[in-house]
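Protein 1 of 2
SEQ + STRUCT:
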Amino acid sequence: MSAPTSSMTRTLLTIDAAACTHHDGDTEQACRRAAAALAVLPAGYRTGLIHARATDLYQSIPAQHHREPAVRALHTALA
């Protein structure tokens, strides 16, 4: 769906897929995927739309799950 060199597009697709995974009930896997996608991007690319989509995913997770390791890892990746 995208060129292998289009890291921003591929990251957006990964974060969107992670949001679907969360919606399907696997929040832990969703957070791991999104955090991993952010981790491989240079800091300058973790802004704008990419940051907004990952933040939307994090904010869609109920607060009682925010202490779980995978959710905390996503929060850290967003910081």
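Protein 2 of 2
SEQ + STRUCT:
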Amino acid sequence: MSDIWFRTGEATVLAADGQYTDAMPEVLIGSVRGPAGHAFASMMGQVQGHTRMFVVRDLNQQVRPATMMTTKATIHTLEYVDLLGGVVQGAIGDAIVDALAEGILPRDQADELCMIVMVWLDPRCAEDENLDKADLYRTNYEAMKIALERAMTGRPTVDELIANRKSVKHYALDGVVEY
């Protein structure tokens, strides 16, 4: 039985110039027997506008640990669904498998853990005639690997957060709050 009950991580990887492919996954990792497992099972139905799906690398290639992904933005078009269930899902799946191979995720607990991933896919991607799918893959792959590592290592630590409290601020606070 896994001793990993409830770990969280997030990361942001920015798009190439002129693209809307920023990736910002948020991940919950935990035992299938604990609160993460309960939340995972509760997500087995669909909610209008926020598709939920197992992460698969391709047909018949569901990743381990079992991972459910959903969107942070409301889905309005089939083009959006195609990108979410295609490039984004593939990138996240590849990152998970590589995290297992690299020891970021414990291979011996792959069937005892589950994960929930909330992903950001900018709605403008589905409308962009010049969408760079390679950049969409890159940002989601890189961000997912970082989020997994942060979840498994507890980063940033409380000490890191306190140390950078006056030097790091949310981008939306520029001109709003001065440190």
